[in-house]
Amino acid sequence: MQPPPKKKRKSEGGQQKRPKAAAASQEDVHPVAQAVQAVVAAEPTGWEELDGQAQDVQQQAEPVQEEAHKKPTKHAKKRAKDDRERQIREAEMRRMVGDAAPSSITEFEQLVLSAPNSSFVWIKYFAFLISLGELDKARTLADRALQTISYREEDEKFNVWVAYLNMENLYGSEDATLALLSRALSHTDARRTYLAAVDIFERSQKGHLVEQCLKAMTRKFNDSVEVWLRAVKFRLTSGDAEGARKTLDRSLQSLPQFEHVRMITQAGLLEFKIGDPERGRSVFEGVLRNHPKRLDLWSVYLDQEVAGGDQQRIRALFERATHLQLPPKKMKFLFKRYLDYEKAHGTAEGVEHVKKRALEYVEAQAGV
Question: Does rRNA processing show up as a keyword for this record (predicted)?
Answer without folding.
Answer: yes
